From TrEMBL:
PROSITE patterns, alphabetized: PEPTIDASE_C56_PFPI (PS51276)
Biological classification of the source: Bacteria, Bacillati, Actinomycetota, Actinomycetes, Kitasatosporales
Gene3D superfamilies in the cross-refs: 3.40.50.880
Species, as recorded: Streptomyces regalis
Pfam families in the cross-refs: DJ-1_PfpI
Protein name: Peptidase
Coiled coil: none
NCBIfam families xref list: PfpI
Protein family membership: Belongs to the peptidase C56 family.
InterPro entries: C56_PfpI-like, Class_I_gatase-like, DJ-1/PfpI
Length: 188
């Protein structure tokens, strides 16, 4: 049976930041599950840039079913977790079930991949203190407030934590995350 990887997300997650790692990790041979607050069809979004806008725009993206609810997750069943961005982390960080799940991955030093606004979740469980991370650049002050050293880079690796800025950095993010995964939880 292949090792399992958990993706934690919800409505308004960035489509590419959920589906790219989902497909890439499956291609690598991992069994990937998507967890959300409840089992339902999730509505993702697309964030992009328009001329003369000061920030990104948001448009409806793909829909995708959640495989399980956070309350059904046994973190011990998974070798790693992926935390996509978008707007979902803004409200997901308030979910006590999700905070327990994420804390267990850090306590066990399992690989964690976070991107864009995903680090808002790891900041909410105080797992960034003393670490090097990147995130969507507008979160630099949030990362510093969480005790992290912010680096504006395609991908930042700090032990088993791999972070990235946003979907244009997917290649570097997954390349670094797969290096960590192959060392800690290889597909056999």
């Amino acid at each position: 049976m292949p090792p399992k990887i958990l993706i934690v997300t919800g409505d308004a997650a960035e489509s590419l930041e959920v589906l790219y790692p989902y497909q890439r990790l499956r291609e690598e041979g991992y069994d990937v599950h998507i967890a959300a607050p409840t089992r339902k069809k999730l509505q993702f979004v697309v964030h992009d840039f328009e001329p003369d806008f000061d920030t990104y725009t948001e448009k409806p993206g793909y829909t995708w079913p959640a495989d399980l609810a956070f309350s059904e997750v046994d973190p011990g069943d998974y070798v790693a977790v992926v935390i996509p961005g978008g707007r979902a982390p803004e409200y997901l960080r308030n979910d006590p079930e999700l905070r327990k799940i994420l804390k267990s991955f850090f306590d066990a030093d399992k690989p964690v991949a976070q991107i864009c606004h995903g680090p808002l979740l790891t900041a909410a469980i105080d797992s960034l203190r003393g670490r090097r991370v990147t995130a969507y650049p507008a979160l630099e002050l949030d990362m510093q407030a969480a005790g992290a050293t912010f680096q504006d880079a395609e991908a930042v690796v700090d032990g088993t934590l791999v972070s990235s800025r946003a979907w244009p950095d997917h290649s570097g993010w997954m390349r670094e995350f797969l290096t960590v995964l192959r060392a800690k939880a290889p597909v056999t």
